[in-house]
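From the pipeline queue, job 12 of 40. The input is one protein chain; the requested action is below.

Action: predict structure.
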Amino acid sequence: MRILLAIALMVAGILHFVVPAYFIAIVPRWLPHPDLLVVVSGVGEIVGGVGLLVPRARRIAGAGLIVLLIAVFPANIQMLHDWRASGGGGWYEVGLWLRLPVQLLLIWMVHRVALRPRTDGDGPKP
């Protein structure tokens, strides 16, 4: 699970640089410098994903990723708000609603692979 999560986070981070306009558009309007925030969050996802793969960096990477996942949660709400304001609906809106609790699942997954004490020798020590 740790490797798949790390890959998913790194891919998401890379996408911040491949299609920045998509991510800039979902930054809540009340936050300044959306372009900079997209770069910072993209770098955070890439570095955090790599950190999950490095045993000595796993705990700090996990803590940083949890903070990042909490910090970007308003973007998920902004995306849903914008979709609804545009008269959207349908399955895409259902997906946007489901995306909100998925953020909690991602936080739990990061905690499980990076911060929770493990006894099998693969995770961080207590």
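Job complete. The chain has six helices and no strands.
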